[in-house]
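Hey,
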Amino acid sequence: MSKSYGAKHVFSGANFLIERGQRVALAGVNGAGKSTLIKILAGAEPVTSGEYTLGHNAEPDYFAQDQYKELDVEARMLDDLGMVAPRATNTELRTILGSFLFSEDDVFKRIGVLSGGERNRYALARMLMMPGNFLLLDEPTNHLDMRAKDVLLKALQDFTGTLVFVSHDRYFLEQLATRVIEVCGGEVHAYPYSYTEYVRNKEEAVVMPVAQALETTVAAPVLEISDGARRLNPIKLRKMEERRHEIEEEVTRLEAEIADGEQSLANFVSMEQTQQEHALLATRRAELDALMQEWETVSEAIEANA
């Protein structure tokens, strides 16, 4: 299938199959068309050509980036959730709300008085109370703190249906995705492996040619070094520039999450939570160090071709 908005081409030649029980991450730089693709899969956006066919008994349930805007601001959370799941007991409703960090009298708050992050959290709890068997989530971790992200991650790991999602949270992607579909350069590519393996393969595709080019330059006699010997072809150079931009965005996100994590540690709740936050911080810092090293390698190659 293909998708365009008038003269604006988003992608073409998309051809893939999503099987029951898979957890699929949609990957690609900002603006590549990830949100457009997930809207098509959710039935919220038509294709320009080709076709999209749902499997037998597949029931899509779409969570948009601004899903919280669809909520009734006058309703109380407990009452609203009860309408979604009328057979659930009051205890069951309180349990799901408690899982998303709404406790005691919080459950009686009107949706309109909640912050943006709280509304997003409630919208997720509401959807997971009675989920379809095919969830499509566009940036579900936006406005969630680390504890709420962990709750959502555990709920989705336990979900037995099919999941397609977009997220910029690398830890969330690595822990959840069993395969990847990438939107890049007006094309869509499906990969039959996890997000961790996808990133590793992408890094090797970029870093190995850089390392080989640097090795050749160092090993060559000084008088034989020429501008042409260090040149990368335009396609590889463009991919490196795209990757550098991706890294810079990931670094900004990680630095913000590390700052949030350090702030959370300042507010002691329990030893178990403190240990979890320390572990998450260690993971984030290791990711940041690896990204900075990759940024230096890629930047050096780009500057050599300036």
